[in-house]
Amino acid sequence: MAVAVKKKSFLDGIPDAPPDPILSLRTLYEEDPAEKKLNVSVGAYRTDEGKSYVLPVVKEVETMMLDDPSLNHEYLPVEGLKEFRDATAKLAFGEDSLAIREGRCVTVQALSGTGALRVGLEFLSRFYAQGAKVYIPEQSWPLHRRIPPLSGMGEVGLYRYFNADTKGVDFTGLMEDISHAPNGSIIVLHPCAHNPTGADLSFDEWKRLCTVIAEKGHLPFFDAAYQGFATGDLIRDRFALEYFASQGIELMLSQSYAKNMGLYGERTGALSVIVSDKSIVDRVLTQLKQVIRPMYSSPPAHGARIAATILNNPVLFDKWNGELKLMSGRILEMRTALKLALQKLQTPGSWDFLEKQIGMFSYTGLTGPEVDFIQEKYHIYMMRNGRISMAGLTTSTVDYLAGAMHDAVLNAPKGHL
């Protein structure tokens, strides 16, 4: 009788991949048996009861869709749903955008903001100036560092962004670094609610930055994940996008509806390209489709239909606006509550920056050892750079976090490792 010989797998030598810094924290939190614990690492909106939130206007649209006999499950075109593509470009750049009116804006549906970045950067790796480098803020969303090399653009460069002393934007350092970057570099920018710092440029600073980018011939690539979710005002939050487009600058934009419509799992987003010459628009579209087709063939329909219905219906759009104000308002309340709780405890340092920062996230200034101390002693999970999601806080947990932060500032081991 023949003895079965166990074959070695062709993958026997495969190493473990490094854990995702955000998703691994969620796993640790879920597996933590502690009765009292808190997760302020994940960038998803929660109610004041700590529950997931489905926007009522989204529920309303889904009910309408259930009763619509014309809907089916056919493939969308490679470039996505037209009603969604047209509406999302207008949301970003304004109804009266000259670039849109002149037909110089190309928009394709994408797999949320992540997919839009990947499609856009792979497109640039094929057609933008060879050797051009992508620059991202020193503090940025982790995938901004990983997506460019995977898209064929090489390792990213960094520009200064956050001032650790003021807990705001290091605008002088930012301007120096972008001024010294080689002409024609690709500059990744957060138009509002900067992730992870919560520190945004002022309108005047955006204008000054636009001038430098134009002089250097850089290509701005905006990543807009929080329009309307930062201040509750869709128009205010798009200032940088609208202004850059109005100055005749060619640019690219990644948009996501994960946060501002709560469509996290639907992967609803878009990539827009504004060019200076209308005659190349059709060619740009065909090449973007060439990138998309072998990557995921065509985008999902459900989320795009929800977003398109809301964006194109004035009554539903107004309801959405109201819900954005509600969500952004709750986050602002948590910022104030945390600041006041830390001040009440007389925690060393000034905590006024918590109200000056904006959007879902805040850079608290906590060091790595302080974060470790808080996680071990209080079972509170946050990024090791001290970033917390303000949307993860509730009125019932803010004092618990403040107490842990107070203890860590006074008693945790010193250092920044």
Question: What are the SSEs and their pairings?
Answer:
Elements: H1 23-31, E1 38-39, H2 56-66, H3 82-93, H4 98-101, E2 105-111, H5 112-127, E3 134-137, H6 142-150, E4 157-159, E5 162-163, E6 168-169, H7 171-180, E7 186-189, H8 203-216, E8 219-224, H9 234-237, H10 239-246, E9 251-256, E10 268-274, H11 281-296, H12 302-312, H13 314-344, H14 353-356, E11 361-363, H15 368-378, E12 380-381, E13 387-389, H16 398-411
Helix pairs in contact: 2-12, 2-13, 3-12, 5-6, 5-11, 7-8, 8-10, 12-13, 13-16, 15-16
Walk me through the structure.
The protein has helices spanning 23-31, 56-66, 82-93, 98-101, 112-127, 142-150, 171-180, 203-216, 234-237, 239-246, 281-296, 302-312, 314-344, 353-356, 368-378, 398-411, and strands at 38-39, 105-111, 134-137, 157-159, 162-163, 168-169, 186-189, 219-224, 251-256, 268-274, 361-363, 380-381, 387-389. It is built from 16 helices and 13 strands. The strands form four sheets. A seven-stranded mixed beta sheet has the order 2-10-9-8-7-3-4, with helices on both faces. A two-stranded parallel sheet has the order 1-12. With 417 residues, the chain is of the alpha/beta class. The N and C termini lie far apart (60 Å). Helix 3 (82-93) packs across helix 12 (302-312).
